[in-house]
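re: the backbone from monday

yeah here it is again, tokenized this time
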């Protein structure tokens, strides 16, 4: 099985790039951030402080988390039987996800789920510690990033398109706060693996970003795309 690790900060475009590359090569796409968002949502809905490690961990046995894929190959998150794929994308849940992902017991809880996916399928997995912790032996490791302003602008457009009433400065502030939390947390902090290829997409279009990652996959694995751009 071929495994591709795509790490980077929030809003870098990891999920959209990974989805397109997965489609192009016929791989299974695994959005690990969505799994943490799902746990964050579960805590939020229960009124649990997501910085309270004991409370979050005590909730885990009550959760039934599953990944499903629709006809377009899009990953959907199922929490206790309900599709929460849209609910987990708000800025509030983004911060909850950052908080719960800093809890070592939560990361341990999800590690086997993520690794088992890579044992069963050719995968492109995105997150913040895929190349360093989850799949340290991945065939290809990419650290995808962009400036905070560029990432905030992309996220802002995405949220406005979905009908969210929010200002650009709010999105940028949330982005910077999450960056700080993710890079400074004790459990598996956000950082590039030593053997990862660093790719800054600040001045790249979406297609250029996808082409850059696809080129690396071809060069390092010899796998050719099953469909054109």
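seq for it, each position gets an aa:
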């Amino acid at each position: 099985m071929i495994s591709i690790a795509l790490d980077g900060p929030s809003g870098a475009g990891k999920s959209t790039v990974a989805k397109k590359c997965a489609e192009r090569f016929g791989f299974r796409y695994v959005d690990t951030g969505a799994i943490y968002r799902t746990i964050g949502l579960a805590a939020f809905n229960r009124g649990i402080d997501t910085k309270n490690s004991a409370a979050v961990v005590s909730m885990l046995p009550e959760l039934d988390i599953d990944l499903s894929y629709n006809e377009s190959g899009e990953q959907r998150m199922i929490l206790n039987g309900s599709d929460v794929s849209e609910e987990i994308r708000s800025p509030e849940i983004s911060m909850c996800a950052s908080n719960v992902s800093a809890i070592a017991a939560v990361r341990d809880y999800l590690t086997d789920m993520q690794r088992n996916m890579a044992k069963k399928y050719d995968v492109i997995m995105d997150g913040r510690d895929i190349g360093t912790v989850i799949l340290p032996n991945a065939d290809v490791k990419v650290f995808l990033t962009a400036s905070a302003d560029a990432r905030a602008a992309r996220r802002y457009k995405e949220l406005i398109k979905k009908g969210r009433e929010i200002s650009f400065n709010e999105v940028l502030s949330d982005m910077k706060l999450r960056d700080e939390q993710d890079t400074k947390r004790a459990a598996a902090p956000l950082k590039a693996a030593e053997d990862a290829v660093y790719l800054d997409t600040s001045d790249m279009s979406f297609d250029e970003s996808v082409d850059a990652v696809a080129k690396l996959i071809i060069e390092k694995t010899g796998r050719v795309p099953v469909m054109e751009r």
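The two ends are 23 Å apart (CA to CA). The chain has a mean pLDDT of 91.
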